[in-house]
Amino acid sequence: MNYVLVYTLFLMSCFYTSCGQNQTNGQSQTKVPQDNTRMGYTVSQLKEAETTKVPMGMVRNVKLASNGDILIASYLGVFRYNGTSFTNLTNEIISPRFASFWDVLEDRKGNLWFGSRDSGVYYYNGKSFQHFTTRDGLASNGIMHLYEDKAGNIWLGASRYDGKSFRNFTTKDGFPGSSIRLLLEDKTGKLWFGAQGENMFVYDGKTFTVLKNEEGKPFNNVWSIIEDKKGNIWFGDNGYGQGHDPSCYGLWRYDGSTFTKVSERGAFAIMEDKKGNIWTTGTVERNGKVWALSRYDAKSLYNKNPIATEIKSAGAMDFLGILEAKDGSIWFGSRNGVHRYDGKTFTDFKSKSASLSP
């Protein structure tokens, strides 16, 4: 399709979409999203992304759908993998030239949410799309993280959606900013928040508390957080950000009273597998030049020096979002698509696209 035509249709759609609650197969934005040619993608790559059967570009997050399908948030589109082939879920609502998705969420009702870098969030109920931006009440059009809490509210960065309206949280509420990167509601009901380049904090329903290590230094630029089967909180401080203290860098565990540094490696993403092993992707050292996929053995997690197996290492951003599929295979995103590790071999789906086409 001619890109001038795509761009024209995009602008026209803005005039035919009203505040958020309207169903649409177009886009409703308060501004034109960034052209991905400015993000380093070439025109030929964007053309290929329009017709490809597999995720292309950077994959920040990989999620598991309730039926076992794999959901993949790629800069150039959101995909679903059903065990045989990939389906691009967003091609009809936004061109890869203007896409750039960061996260994907399936809520408890089976609806899908797509968070983007600069054009808000898209909601898909299986039949039609809705598009939410700052014009509809979002705190920001940059949605780095999507989360559903126990009450069924959908968190979109610093905005909470109850199905009818948005409640935006600001520094007046104790929030560090609008660039919320992660959220976790633990078994006790506490909410754990992290923000891009700012301090991690927890909310107990009454008070916001900035979290600090034993030296009194706040954890800054935490990219990932999970709660394991035992109720321990795991998170990764990646050591970036102005004024960041190096003593906070690494993989951490919180048992309800004490913060323990488990590893000097950073953690972009963290996952607990069915056997209780902890998997991470992220930096090997603070300089961020080498990233790795690592597994911490369940039997040694609470030893002074847990056994960590480096499954594979590569350059920066080559290992990002991670999950365990129902068959036990490990999926992870990278700056160049999505990959699968079956315990023996790695599959780069981008290079296998010809054989995977339906």
Sum this structure up briefly.
The protein has 358 residues and is mostly beta strands. The chain is 7% helix and 37% strand. The protein contains three helices and 29 strands.
Name of the CATH class = Mainly Beta
Q: Kindly state the percentage of residues in helix.
A: under 10%
State the distance separating the first and last CA atoms: 22 Å
CATH superfamily: YVTN repeat-like/Quinoprotein amine dehydrogenase
Mean pLDDT: 84
- Count of individual beta strands: 29
- Give, in spatial order, the strands making up the sheet with the most strands: 1-9-8-7-6
Q: Kindly report the CATH topology.
A: Methylamine Dehydrogenase, Chain H
> Which structural class is indicated by helix and strand composition?
mainly beta
C-alpha geometry: globular
Largest sheet: 5 strands, antiparallel
- How much β-strand is present in the residues? 35-45%
Structural domain tally: 1
Describe what this molecule looks like in 3D.
By secondary structure, the protein is mainly β. The protein has one domain (3-356): YVTN repeat-like/Quinoprotein amine dehydrogenase (Methylamine Dehydrogenase, Chain H). The chain has three helices and 29 strands.
What's the layout of helices and strands?
Elements: H1 3-15, E1 23-24, H2 43-51, E2 59-64, E3 70-74, E4 77-81, E5 86-88, E6 101-106, E7 112-116, E8 121-124, E9 129-132, E10 146-148, E11 154-156, E12 159-161, E13 166-168, E14 180-185, E15 191-195, E16 198-203, E17 208-210, E18 222-227, E19 233-237, E20 250-254, E21 259-263, E22 269-272, E23 278-283, E24 290-296, E25 308-315, E26 322-324, E27 330-334, E28 337-341, E29 346-348, H3 353-356
Antiparallel strand pairs: 1-9, 2-3, 3-4, 4-5, 6-7, 7-8, 8-9, 10-11, 11-12, 12-13, 14-15, 15-16, 16-17, 18-19, 19-20, 20-21, 22-23, 23-24, 24-25, 26-27, 27-28, 28-29
